[in-house]
Amino acid sequence: MNGKIAIEEHFAYGRPDEDAAGRLGGAWSWAETARRLVDFHDLRLKDMDKNGIEYAILSLNAPAVQMILDTHEAIEASRRYNDFLAEQVARRPDRFGGFAALPMQDPGAAAEELTRCVNELGFPGALVNGFTQRDIPDSVIYYDTPEYRPFWARVQELDVPFYMHPRTAVYQRAQAYEGHPWLFSSAWGFAVETSIHVLRLIGSCLFDEYPRLQIVIGHLGERIPYDMWRIDHRIATIPAGYPAKKPMSAYMRSNVHITTSGNFSDSTFRCAIAEMGIDRIMFAVDYPMEVMVDGASWFDNTPVLTEEERKRVGRTNTIKLFKLALPC
After folding, report:
1. How far apart are CA 160 and CA 143, in angstroms?
2. pLDDT digits (tens, 9 = 90+) for 215-262
3. 131: exposed, middle or buried (C-beta count within 10 Å: 0-12, 13-18, 19+)?
4. CA 80: distance to chain centroid?
């Protein structure tokens, strides 16, 4: 399919984060990935052209701002990264959009930076790399706590989606992975971190307070869609203080969207569609952590979709959610 729009596509500012090297394995794979992370207008566009991707919304690679311990430094870095991305987008606005990086160490500053990125830079939303650290290395701050409520109010007011991207667990808090480093990051740990964060947001009554908020998560839902019935069932069977007004699955289907990033499986895709509905799924590759041709060729040829559904997932759903100035 030509004209696809991809929305979990990463870049690096300056030297790519060495934390990613450990997630990707061998030296060759990291060298190739790093080369593409810092490229915008050569390798990336050539790959997009070869694979029928018309437009990509770019985002800063993980963990980026979320690992900066000093709040003032995080605020300055976010502004610098966003200005840099805006410069790249301005060179090819027909091919690229940008997601805001946010200093979640300070909810008020994050709200102001998002406002600037939407109103002045023209970004269609934000992508944040999971929980934030602040002040001490083993800190883990999730965004369901009361201090973040004004931030979420601003997101709803701006009417832009918020993409919750995974990050690796803080090592000092990752005892369950000891002796099993293969579980630590993208093979398993990414989905664990992101799914817990999203479920915390739901359970904190966030979407009862701000019902128009729209969250996006990748990798066909970070495994949540495949357990929605059981989560609802066990919460109802063994009440443990779940405070939200509706079942967890109801919020997933009204306030959460998922993408195909890095999960190119027909059987998984079928389940995601059955649980979430076709209009809540969008195409993404997870470039350059994934090879673009793998994600694009799978999507173009999967028998799970009709051609009309392929266009909706590959293009139309994204244009509508992010209000892109592109023809449906």
Report:
1. 17
2. 999 999 999 999 999 999 999 999 889 999 999 999 999 999 999 999
3. buried
4. 20
List Cα–Cα distances, 316 to 54, 96, 282, in angstroms.
13, 16, 9
Domains in the chain, CATH or no CATH each: 4-322 (3.20.20.140)
Amino acid at 181: P
* Lookup result for tokens 């406002």: 115
Residues 85, 216: Cα–Cα separation, whole Å:
20
C-alpha R_g of the chain: 19
Decide if pLDDT at 27 tops 60: no
* pTM, rounded to two decimals: 0.95
Report how far residue 71's alpha carbon sits from residue 81's, in angstroms, rounded to the nearest whole number: 15
Asked if 286 is an active-site residue, the reply is yes
Q: Contact, 123 vs 181, CB < 8 A?
A: no
The residue behind tokens 């559904």 is 309
Q: Is the pLDDT of residue 15 over 80?
A: no
Nearest Cα to Cα of residue 205 among 253, 161, 146, 277? 146
**Residue 50 CA, distance from chain mean position:** 24
Catalytic residue among 17, 47, 106, 286: 286
Model confidence at 21, in pLDDT bands (50, 70, 90)? very low
Q: How high does pLDDT run on average in the chain? A: 95
Place of tokens 């990509």: 56
pLDDT level of residue 29 (50, 70, 90 thresholds): confident
Cβ 63 vs Cβ 17: under 8 Å:
yes
Give the HSE-up count for residue 135: Cα atoms under 13 Å, Cβ half-sphere.
2
Q: Which of 64, 80, 69 is nearest to 18 (CA)?
A: 64
For residue 238, the SS3 value is coil
